[in-house]
Structure formats: C-alpha cells, structure tokens
Amino acid sequence: MNTYNYCAAPQDVDMTKRATLLSICKSVLNTAGVDAYSNGFGVDVLNKDHRTWVLSRFAIELVSQPGQYQDYSVDTWVSDYGRVMTIRNFSLKCAGEGFGNATSQWAMIDEQERTIVDLSKCYEKYGFLKDDIQPPIAAPKRLSSIPAGISVLHKVSYSDIDFNSHMNALRYLEKMFDLLPLEWLTKATNIRLDVHYMKETFLGEEISIKCSEQENVAFFEVLKSDGVAAVRASFKKI
Amino acid sequence: MNTYNYCAAPQDVDMTKRATLLSICKSVLNTAGVDAYSNGFGVDVLNKDHRTWVLSRFAIELVSQPGQYQDYSVDTWVSDYGRVMTIRNFSLKCAGEGFGNATSQWAMIDEQERTIVDLSKCYEKYGFLKDDIQPPIAAPKRLSSIPAGISVLHKVSYSDIDFNSHMNALRYLEKMFDLLPLEWLTKATNIRLDVHYMKETFLGEEISIKCSEQENVAFFEVLKSDGVAAVRASFKKI
After folding, report:
1. What global pTM score does this model have?
2. What is the least distance, in Å, from the CA of B136 to any CA of chain A?
3. Contact B37/A at CB under 8 A
4. Cβ proximity of B63 and B99 under 8 Å
C-alpha cells in the first residue's frame, strides 16, 4: 500500500468551499496513474509496447469532503489481477479521519488493435505488485439501461480527449453531474457513485447524456450516436 | 521570485503526448494562487474580509510544450501594484531551458458588493510583496469586438463554476480552444495567447462563444445572453 498526498486547492472547491466530488475522483484516478508509474507499470512503460491502461468500472463512497486548503491523503493498493481486469483500491483520509473509499477495475488494451491484453500473460513482464487487503467497499455495481429522463447532446471536443485519444473518464462524470440538481452536489454528505465505462467515444462524435432521478438515486447513461451505451452510472445519496 | 514545480502527467497531455496549452495555463494560474497563499495574501486571507482575487487580463507565449512525464518549473513574481490592478509574471522552464513566459493582471473584488477594492489602501494590511523585475513579455493586448465567425451556445453549468461562484477563467479557454482546428493545438510550437476577462458569467446563464479565424490568428469573444462581452481572446501562431 502506498500513500499520496493532495490539497483541496481553490480550483478544487465549489461555492460551498468544499472539495468537489469531481476533484476527489480526479485525485483518486491520478493516484492510480502515479502509483502504477512509480511501481514500473505505468502508461510510460506500457506505451512502449503500444499498450495502455483503461478504466472499466469505478465506485466511490464519501461521508464528507475536505474544505478549501485542507490536506488529504489517498492510500492505494492493488488487491487482485484477473485475466482481463486488475482491481485497485483507495482509502481517503483527512485530518486523521477516513472520509471515503473507492475501488476500480482496469483493463490493459492494445492501442493499435483496441483489443484487451491478457493480464495473466504479462504479470512478470511488468512486475505487477499486489497487497492481500480486500477492497474497502462493495465492487462497482452492474448497471442497466435507464428509464426516460432528461437528455442533452454533446459533441466530443479536444478538451474532452485524453492521451488515449478517447473521451476522458472524468469528463463523462462532469457532464453527468451537471445534470443533477445543485443541492445533490453542494449539500449531500453521504454518497456512493458507481460508474461503468463500456465503450470509448472519440473526437467529433455526437453523444447524448441521459439522467433519470428517483428519490435518492440518479441514474445516468451516455449513448453513442448509434444508440449503443458508452457509460452508465448511478449516484446515490445514502 | 519564487519557483514552483509541475509534471506533465498523463491527464495533462493530449494525443500527441505533449502537455496541452490549457494544462500549462492551469499550472500558471495555480502558481499565482499558491504564491499569493504562501506569501499571506491568498484567497484564504482575503475571504475573511469577503474579498477575493479576480483575473482581469492574461497573456502567455510558448515556444514548446513539455512531453508526458517531463518536469517543468514556473518562476513567479509580482512586478507592480496599481490602484486597481496588480501585475504578476511567470517564466517557464523545462530541462534547464526556458519554454515560455506569461504575465497577468489581477483585481481584488468585494465578494458581496462585486466592486473593485483599491489596492493602494491595503498594501500594508495584506503585506504585499514585489520584485524589481520587468514582465518577460508584452502586456496583455487590448482586444476589440470580433467579426462574424463560428458561434456556439453554452449554458454555464456546475462544473464551469469556481469558488467565486462565477465561470472559471480556464473554462472559457477550454470552450474557445475547442473551436480551433485541431492542428493549431497539436502542431503549433510558437504561440501567443491574450485573454481579457471583462464580465462575470453565472450558473444557468446562456452564453455564446464566437471564433473568427484570420490566417495565423484566431479571435474569440464570449457574449452574455444580453450581448455584452464577457471575455475576449486572441490566439496567435507566431
């Protein structure tokens, strides 16, 4: 297990002066990248073999969010490597208190073929490391197609794209959160987010982002222009 | 003069594996915040007086952009305090070589009244510091209303808003850059960006972002729903 330190800087907080859910997800996903990098199996090494890590599923639970200028830490460890997925976990602390946990599933893809690489065949090649510590929260949920709700169209733009040439994982979350009533983001203290990244979307693609709200849960679905689901998510106020 | 260190992490680069202009602007503006904070006149101190810093004008020139995982540094210093504006400068270095410079003008506003605070009256209160080093590049240019070009509408959303409750300075740039031909962002090596923030825009506001391209310069204008200019910018391939 390794620990990485962050600070809820002014650009990470909203008008409530509390670190946004998005900025915390960003720290968590950044931690995944930096930890893989510093252990010798980051995208820098994989890129040499025309491979990269792709986030498949992600879940995070928070009971509070750090205030502006508060330092917080993210512990991270890999608990398992399957043939297709590796499971990376996170535990978040602020001022000595745990305020959240997360777990994620990553696949390795061949950048040219866009196919999944068998992780069991490259365990030694990349020197994968793991800890015998279970994930701190339940695995990311299965999510189905959502009922009718609000829907917005978005053309995938340069600023949405990352080094993998596809729309960035955090960008989908940003577009989804923008469809929520403001108080879900500014007032909720006890939340769980589940995300399932299913298909990539690319520059110039016209996608639709749908949101359906039911009591204390909002369900999201991002559809590609041909109607195929690219991302599904649920945001629950516990 | 103080120096702050950054790394062009995977989330800061585009498909060319080069740090995006936006990520460099983000480091520069972050440096401004952190340096003000560590010198005792950051937004944390100003907030106690219901005041905050607001970016008014900004210019940056780059001759290259760091590659993925390259470390780079930002030197910053304040060269002047006027009654209305303070001038903060930046010099960027990567692997021992300068790759860019920037200069910015900031006003202090009263958060409740939304009026400008006379900086000459709070020089001692906040312990302002300055260096006798001139700005490294020409001051941000005056920019006029732009001729007809392409135009997109955007509703200001939660993810656009910062701790000041208005649309974030970097978000305007993001929206503007998304209107440029891709090769301006992925291939240009020698650029200058000038930005003039004129009016704030707020959550739920419908704004239009206009872009007019002329040979090696693109001009941008963001208009509020009543047609008043909120931001103007020019992006020049030198």
Report:
1. 0.92
2. 26
3. yes
4. yes
